[in-house]
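Quick board copy: two proteins, each given as sequence then tokens.
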Amino acid sequence: MSEITYDDFLKVDIRVGTVIRAEPYPEARKPAIKLWVDFGPEVGEKKSSAQITAHYDPETLVGKQVMGIVNFPPRQIGRFMSECLIVGFTDGEGGVVLAAPDQNVPNGGRLH
């Protein structure tokens, strides 16, 4: 990958939020979960379709803090409009493990 500048990094708005609702998304081409995330008063609530079914069930996600890119344009995923990109890392088998702070922080906090 090519190097970026710090100004390039600042263009990516990565915030922490709390999952307030999660539902299975069986209609998606790849297994996914629909998430509604509270990113605090400045950003508000955003929806995302996340391919995280290898390690997560909707019931276990409510109340969990996650990190998401909140300044991507909305993207239609089947019949669901995804408004942010929840970020994570792939494990050895291709499943996604969510990126999250290791301690609770206020919703809307920006990654520095």
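And the next:
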Amino acid sequence: MQTTENELIKKCLNNDSKALKRLYDLYAPKMFGVCLRYAKNQMEAEDILQEGFIKIFSNLHRFKFEGSFEGWIRRTFVNTAINHYKKNLKHARELDIEDVETENLKGEKVLDKLSADEILSVVQKLPEGYRVVFNLNVIEGYTHKMIGEMLSISENTSKSQLLRAKRLLREKINQYESREG
């Protein structure tokens, strides 16, 4: 007999160890992907994953059984990754959008040739601030205003970090294209 998601959550709330393991096994692979996008490397992603599940299990009683449970978990992991970034932030600096020149994005065809692992590797090599803003905006769909509030930076800093992230990604992709071409 298949246990529904709500039944599984209720069992977890009653500290059923098998249910807790099932919940972990069900969501860990997807959430590890989220963690990898924000982390510098696999080890840091594993730390974020562990920290995220500690938060999930500690705050499961706050899930109201409204909306998507996976969405609730994803938000927890994104917030955990942001908190990890903030905790490790050594030098926050304000950047101004006017300082960043805009360029046309080249190399879109190269993206078709890259595997998901290669793209992830390129994103992981971005400087931490750029990587976090890139993920929040491009992958998660947050606005620059929301990102600014989350990271305690200005909206313009978020915009400039995204532009710089895209420029660095373009450079790395062009390097890949020249190696392959």
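Board note added afterward: Residues 38 and 131 are 6 Å apart (CA to CA).
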